[in-house]
Amino acid sequence: MKRKGSAVWMGGLRDGRGTVSTASGVLSENQYSFSTRFENGKGTNPEELIAAAHAGCFSMALSGQLEEAGFTAESIRTTATVTLEKTDAGFRITKVHLDVTAKIPGADQEAFETAANNAKIGCPVSQLLNAEITMDAALEA
Question: Which residues contact residue 125 at a Cβ distance below 8 angstroms, ignoring those fewer than 6 apart?
Answer without folding.
Answer: 50, 53, 54, 57, 58
